[in-house]
Amino acid sequence: MEKAAAPIDRKALRAEWNIIRPDLQLLVHQAEHDGVAVIANYWPSERCAKARAEIDRIILEYPHAVQNYSGGADKRMFGVESASPLLMKFHSDVFLREFGELLGGRDLYNFATLGARIEATADNNGSGDGWHRDAHGFQYKAILYLSDTDMGNGPFEYLLGSHTAIRAATHVTIAAIADPYSTRLSDREVARIVASGLECRAFPAVAGTLLLVNTAGIHRGMPLKTRERYALTNYYYHRNEIDQERVEKFSPLIPGAAERIRRDVAGQTR
Question: Which domains does the chain have, with CATH numbers?
Answer without folding.
Answer: 35-267 (2.60.120.620)
